[in-house]
């Protein structure tokens, strides 16, 4: 693939050296054949997890796991340009995610912004090394879009908080060593004012994890039940009852993380490959002007989002809490990702109905599988509806719609 | 074709009566847990038993080309039933069975083991719906067929297959072959919604001619438009029920201390989805009432609208359910799978588009 226009920025010697370093690392560490459309990688979950752990260890050893984090916490203080280089090189080679991607992208930055010295000293290095795998316990069955409606209680008892409640959509909970939990510490306060954030050791007695099967057939999420789980006071993040502000900064980091564009770039490439491969009336779809119109539209948006998302991401990973603009990036990226997966179904025609294991399934049945998986893109990390509310209120400054709270 | 309002009202009454009977039957005889068994790979599960029940009600005997009268079930009623099987997500060979019988003029009993199925799809996609690459060779006073068919619903369950083929001198004909005979090789394709589908290879298979030349083309065209209309009707049913579930949920799920259905974002989404359903249903019913070339053009219109809009309905419904809608145990993905499968197998969009545009040209000329 040709070098992309954004890297034609005026790179300093330092930036050039950095790019060479990332490339050398990827050359050395990626498995042979990685990133081609044919490469399948580890299929079952256990080997996928093991692979991601190993990948994080290698990134860590090379000092490349969280380059935008401040130097004092193990990052490199990388600025926008280097983050762009990093993202773009990783995307170009389809590099896998480190096991702790979400912790690096949003839990770590939250601890950097709000955590105590002890929390920073203890947790940040272990997030980077991958020694601790993290999950995040925010959503509950009765509190998704309306996150502040959570009911999980944390009651101070001596020097410990006692947590009781249920979380849902907790990815990696079945693997996690630690969980970042939002809980209610003051039930008598207005709903946004009685919340606090905790760092909870998943080995504490009273925690039960139950996997949730998704419509794709995979199980990546869990329900997590807390039954009188005792959490030491030093694991409270920031001030007690200041949790809503802290959680919101985490959500912005999360949105920034969810708006990274490697996935939509990959999907665009897959679409183009499909369009070239699939024929109707013995002509590749790629030659059909209507198909070209669609692909051009997708390509233009992917290009725009690469810029938009890189900015949000770079600011976010530096620990500068990103603004509500990241909602725009998350909204557009997830909707585009989903739209492209939907369009792959249209392109594939009857072959869109053939699943993995069927004769003649396209690319191992990946077209319908991605279609199913992508339903969650506009739901997880804040639904499109919520992102639009946030943008309307905080970016455009429109009056709050009644009922949507803070 | 013009009809007086009284006739139309009578037809509408009969349509509603049939629809209610179908809904009632399916409520009693079919549950989504049986469908889950099909998707999890248990083959047909309870589908054959369901079909026997439908056959006992005489639904397989619908004559979709008959002029509608009080005594007979026509295409409008077929669509009404198909819409209900769509709503119930019931996998039945109703549509392929009626299509097959229409071509063969209703000679068969149509038990599950006696289905005669039109095998027309192929691996190579084409916008010319009548096209076939199968070849017929005259031999020993009969015909022998060679060709490959793909995406054939109930193709492995069928007793007989109906295949279009061309002879060496270019004459098109429709033929009937016994499915359990030398030279027929059938294998299952696995579909997203768990319904049965096959790929069929024919090598030098004995075949009985059904129709030739213009008559064969006309019969095939009519059969395919009928199939298109009925599948669209089924899609309308799938979409309609998925939307209904989302609407019910929007009334009860509370966020920000209000039912989510009170938020305009949700209301407008649901209204738009309802509009998709209404448009497609109106087109289906119009096409079902028409006949001949007019029905063919209207069927393509229904298909064009269905391809554009109907898969979006369960997609949008799932969005309203939010996280819970992305879980296996929730039913909404079953509707999504069925809608995506029906959409995928409906036919080439470019073919329908050209039909619509041709019709537009002709009506303006």
Just give the CATH class of the largest domain in chain B: Mainly Alpha
Number of domains of chain A: 3
The CATH architecture term of the largest domain in chain A is: Up-down Bundle
Q: If you average the pLDDT of chain A, what whole number results? A: 89
What helical percentage do the residues of chain A reach?
Answer: 40-55%
* Oligomeric state, counting identical vs distinct chains: heterodimer
Determine the CATH topology of the largest domain in chain A. Butyryl-CoA Dehydrogenase, subunit A, domain 3
Secondary-structure element series of chain B: HHHHHEEEEEEEHEEHHHHH
The top-level CATH class of the largest domain in chain A is Mainly Alpha
Helix content of chain B: 40-55%
Give the class of chain A from helix and strand content and strand pairing: alpha+beta
Q: Regions of chain A with pLDDT < 50 over 5+ consecutive residues?
A: 1-8
- The CATH superfamily of the largest domain in chain A is known as Butyryl-CoA Dehydrogenase, subunit A, domain 3
Q: Globular, elongated, flat, extended or rod-shaped: what is the shape of chain B?
A: globular
Poorly predicted sequence stretches spanning 5 or more consecutive residues of chain B: none
Radius of gyration of chain A: 22 Å
Helix tally of chain A equals: 11
In the sheet with the most strands of chain B, the strands line up as: 2-3-7-5-4
